[in-house]
Amino acid sequence: MPDLPSQAELATELEQQRRTISELQTPVIQVWEGVLALPIVGSLDTERTQETTEALLQKIVDTGSEIVLLDITGVPVVDTAVASHLLEMVSAARLLGCEVLIVGLSARIAITLVHLGLDLSGVVTRTTLAKGLELAFARLGLAVVRRGEPPEPRPVAGAGAP
Amino acid sequence: MARVPILRQGDVLIASVLEELRDSDALALQQQLGARLEQRATRGVLLDVSVVETVDSFLGRLLNEIALSARLLGAATVVVGIRPAVAITLVELGLELRGVHTALTMEKGMALLRRLLDEGARRGPYAGG
Amino acid sequence: MGPTPAAEERLPIAGETDIIAARQRARELAQQLGFGLVDQSRIATAVSELARNVVRYATGGRGEAALRALAASPRGIGIEIVVRDEGPGIADVAQAMREGFSSGTGLGMGLPGTRRLMDELQIDSAPGRGTTVTIRKWRR
Q1: pTM to 2 decimal places
Q2: Domain A27-140 CATH assignment equals 3.40.30.10
Q3: Fewer CB within 10 A of the terminal residue: chain C, N end or C end?
């Protein structure tokens, strides 16, 4: 009769699988020098928020990034709990000198957030990752230009929000 | 006795925490910074806490107070070197340190101070972003 | 393999230097028990909060922190810190546990924050009886 895996072995394997899923679900990607992107797919509970925040902060330290594009397109429900978790991530990244732009908001989520009465002052948002990237470039004083055309003259390089 | 040396570099004060701060050391730092800000025109304060392993509610609030009173005295404060573990812990404690600007390294901190002071100069008489 | 169970380590709390000593010892024990960096920070900060309460509000600013590794438990490996003092005690424990850093005299301040950082927090306190706060955290 073949040996069945012990309880301890199963527990370890389960833990490993859980970690793998966690890593797959929240990859932190460097999209440009100084700019990270973090797409969140699925729901955000306390444990996942903690793991994601740790991974994000470590990446910020490793890359010296100053902007993070937090993409919530794949987050199905944004209630008080999820919103608090997102704001915690923003606050933690901020303490490392990194600005977090939340992108991927739908009108429905925007209305929900306002309705929940959360303090969103100081949180910059955009509807798409592309728009967030555009803002990130502006903050860094960069512009994307079609070849053969000179860039548009800008009034002040890297002028950000007031 | 733990001390925090405060150096001046032009119109910026640089304070580097060298070891874990006792409460009295932290309060002394607050006083000394206040005194130095009064003495000479200072537009920026750079506070390096990269050595600090534990920032609890007392120190967290004190950093915020230092930044807010520096602003009243016309200076912007940038706290540099908050560790990831410290940042996460502060947020879980409910301390966001909204009054404080932050940066990862001294170099970035200086660059941020320069940007804040330039913007302040452009906008009008009130410095300290 | 694992930590040898439960010798209790007692540290006196009599002044502000002891706040640092207690939290650093707690951090070391947490590291030995295999807690990650962030959890070490949470534990050290929690101990710092409790030790400071003793120094600030206990009679004579005196108390004690007892550190213990928890190993023989269904929850696995954990750390326990018990902070005791003979101070005036907390009149309304429920109130002290409610959110609000800026509330009242400051006695018991930092308790909601400490609760958030740890997995378990128990308070045994009453006016005239001193205060005993027990905190525990388990390795994931």
Answers
A1: 0.86
A2: no
A3: N
